[in-house]
Amino acid sequence: MVQPRRATLGFTLLEMLVALALIAVLASVLYASLRIGFDARRRADAALGDLRVARVVADLVQRDLVQALPSTGVLIGAFVGEDATMDGFGADADAVSFFASLEDGGRAPPAVCRVDILAESSAATGTPRLIRRVSRDLLAPSVEEPVDEVLCSDVAGFNLRYYDGSFWSDSWDSTTRGDALPIAIEMRVDVKRSREAPGVDHAEPYSLTRIFLLPCAAMGPTQDGTTRGAGG
């Protein structure tokens, strides 16, 4: 008596090849979709990167300037803002020097320090950068080297203007203004465009302008000879 033939379990070679081909196609489609998504995210981050850098730099500079102390008292010198341009670049490279009460990273109580904010060219790369220079321990018997901090290594311009209550000026010297601080400061930070940012003119930097008051602005003469205070 002939026994019936049992059905063969498993897949044939042809079925395996077809399944592998389908898996390869699906993997290619998935990889392409992920790559498009990651590229879009990278371009979005690059487009917003200039804005983030400019905001962080502006926040750091503003944080120091609003703590500027009046140019009177022990260990406190003049508030001086200089209008300048970068050598070889022609962009704004203003500098400001003032005294402020700063903390030393929480390791010591606040102390009077000299702060310099300036734009200069990097000796290594030749590109402009924005520097925060802090001189601490002003009572030290010997002059200590100031501590430099690079706020932005790709700055395309840094401009400050000062308001005395009546007029805006490109420079400020408290020794000629009755030891008075400016009432308000207008700050513009220019940051070079990221090369990965899509749809932008990389020749034009990203600019952020901010105006803020100085809480310690003292009474002082304006350009027209009148006297005006921070609340006037």
Keywords:
232 residues; alpha+beta; six-stranded antiparallel sheet; four-stranded antiparallel sheet; 1 helix
Description of the structure:
With 232 residues, the chain is of the alpha+beta class. It has one domain. It is 23% helix and 30% strand. The protein contains one helix and twelve strands. The chain has a six-stranded antiparallel beta sheet with strand order 5-4-3-2-1-8, with helices on one face. A four-stranded antiparallel beta sheet has the order 7-6-9-10, covered by helices on one side. It starts with 12 loop residues before the first helix and ends with a strand.
Largest sheet: 6 strands, antiparallel
The secondary structure category is alpha+beta
The total beta strand count reads 12
Query: Strands of the biggest beta sheet: in what spatial order?
Result: 5-4-3-2-1-8
Oligomer: single chain
Distance between the termini: 118 Å
Instruction: Catalogue the unreliable spans.
Output: 219-225, 228-232
> SSE order in H/E notation?
HEEEEEEEEEEEE
Give the overall shape, derived from the CA principal axes: elongated
Give the rounded overall mean pLDDT: 79
